[in-house]
What does this fold into?
Amino acid sequence: MYRHLKKLCICVKKIFFDTERRQLRRMVKQAIKQLPSKKSCQKENSDKCKIIVSFTTFPKRILSAGIVVSSMMNQTIKPDVINLYLSKEEFPKGISQLPHIIKKEIECGLNVVFVEKNLKPHKKYFYALQDYPDDIVVVIDDDIVYPNDLIEVLYNCHKSFPNAVVAQCAHTLLKNGCPISEYVDLEEANESYIPKMSYQALGAGGVLYPPHSMHSELFNIDFILNNCLSSDDIWLKAMQLMNNTPVVITNTMRLVYIPCSQEIALWKTNCYGTNPKNEENFKKIYMKYNNFFGDKDTLLSRLVKE
It folds into this structure.
């Protein structure tokens, strides 16, 4: 009986993944068809600050990344720059290792930047925030179906709250009015268009970072590599607290994942298992930085200063 059930489960799983792969191929073809011309891909904004879109991926998700780039090239507000940061360790053959869709997007204006250090998810912000310190940087993920008004929604909110990090969705680091003691106590944030020190932006939904919104410790590469390599959202929030930067959410987007993109996903090890990485890394980050400004001005105490 058990053997038959096991075979059935394997069969169902195969059908599911075959269906997802077909869906992915269809989405890639559609994304290529929707690519704009080279001249119309990127358009200068009238504002002084440019809008930079930055993200990263790895070999297993490179096709998903192509779908994401296509959606960024068809935004109602065009970004000035789209940068895809890739690790030389994961893409040792450079451009020749990339699929057709990415090469087509390079022709349309995508910048592919190969970097030495493999900072995993931290690549999506680490280099762009240094390369464009005086510009707006919109950080996105490589596995989400983004609406074509993502940048418009984030940017319009930014104009109302220019000193806040703007996100589509977030978690709150408060529980019953007090800072959480365990990371598993996270709850979904629900108050839109109200800047909150207690909100931690969820990177998957797309996040807009205004210039100089985080502390310079953000680029402490040794600490990242040794203590929180898989937990970029937690690290970014700590650096915002160190700079007294609140988060405001639009709450306008439901996350839809690209087919086949969740076969390998950080949330599986960050949020689940006997030793969730997020819990471990949250403690490491705040153990080092909570008292950075002294006992009377801890980072966790800043969460309640709305």
